[in-house]
Amino acid sequence: MKSKKAQLQMGESIFVVIIILLLIVFGLVFASNAEEDSIRADKEDFLDLDSITLTKYASSLAELQCSLLDVTELSCFDIDKLTAFSNVTDKYPEISAEYYFSQFGNANITVHEIYPSNRNWTIYYNGLEDGEVGKIKTTTVPISLYDGITKRKSFGILEIQAISK
Amino acid sequence: MMRTKAQTEIIGLVIIVIIITLAMLFYLSYKADSMTDPSKKTTYQTYAYNEIATSFAQSFLETYVWECHATVEELIVDCGSLRGGRITCGFMSSCQKLEEVMVEIKNETLDAWDYPYGLTLRLSSSKKYSYVKYNCTQDTVGRGTPGVFLVPYFPDPGVGTLELGICKY
Asked: Interface of chain B against chain A, CB under 8 Å?
């Protein structure tokens, strides 16, 4: 009789310990889920900030900006400079990607002419390789495209894809 | 003795229930705090609204329309001023061509990007071209600071205004 009572008591104690352990495990699972959400949100924020930095840098690239007598113009790219730059990027993609990697990182940058004609120039390409997975944030900024021969401007957009691997 | 023991056991169970309830309350309050306020703009959205709005207006005004041998800014002056009508664009007037160019560029950019926006070109008190998508008007909460450009009709009186505002997306 006494030993049965003792066994019951022990059973109760073990049961209580198991319950407490389960509570601790659930608590750790909740906490880690909450932490994962927070880290994911931070990653999104960093990608957003990277996009902004990239956009500001790309839109003020001295190699492409319109200039007259050393005076540069904001939100304006010279078409002749664009064509030359794009040719170099197409001809030597690895060198171009390596040279500008410290400024642009993993990104794709293209310029599209919208009006009056449709032309495209690839300025920088260092995107995802086959099979790679990453998050892409696309920013588009309207810019003017200046033709040095006709001295006229057309409407274009600068498209920047910031990539987070 | 047995009654005291039973009471102690019940108190223990009650404490466990209270701990579980408190843990759930903390988790739910954390989740509620971490959910974003729909009207709160991120840094990226604030930058994007302002940059796109001002860049669009500036680039649009500088665009050259070959059929009219004039920039969009010159077309606005010709269309809005009292002594307008000096510029012709083939078989179209400056106002017709201006509207056509505006619609074409808007379609390829703002509509293609699927932004909620309000684009208004005000030529005079009675003449304006206004395009709104997803009900993004001046009164919409969350609308970014609009890019506003003034085009004076000097020496004629009056001024045209081009305004683009983008709402939260």
From this structure: 12, 16, 19-20, 23, 27, 30-31, 34, 42-44, 47-48, 51-52, 55-56, 58-60, 62-66, 71, 101, 104-105, 108-109, 113
Helix, strand, or coil (residue A75): strand
Reply yes or no on whether the pLDDT at A42 is more than 90: no
To test the contact with chain A by mutation, choose from B51, B61, B68 the residue with the greatest count of A C-beta atoms within 10 A, namely B51
Q: Specify the pTM.
A: 0.77
Under 8 Å between Cβ of B71 and B63: yes
CB under 8 Å to A84, separation ≥6 — which residues? Answer: none
- Rounded-to-integer distance, Cα A127 and Cα A137, Å: 12
Residue A133, C-beta contacts closer than 8 angstroms, at least 6 positions apart: A165
Phi, psi of A112 (to 5 degrees): -120, 130
Tens digits of residue pLDDT in B79-122:
998 877 888 898 999 999 999 999 999 999 999 988 888 899 99
Residue B163 token pair:
């305004």
Contact B149, B127 (CB under 8 A): no
Which residues in B lie closer than 8 A to residue A38 (C-beta atoms)?
A: 34
CA A119 – CA B27 distance, rounded (Å): 53
Where are the extended beta strands (E) located within A48-149? 65-68, 71-78, 107-115, 120-125, 135-147
Tokens of A12: 């109760």
Among candidate residues B99, B168, B100, the one with its CA nearest the CA of residue B128: B99
SS3 content of chain B, % helix, strand, coil (to 5): 50, 20, 30
CA distance A66 to B128: 32
ipTM (interface predicted TM): 0.76
- Please report, as a single letter, which amino acid is at residue B11: I
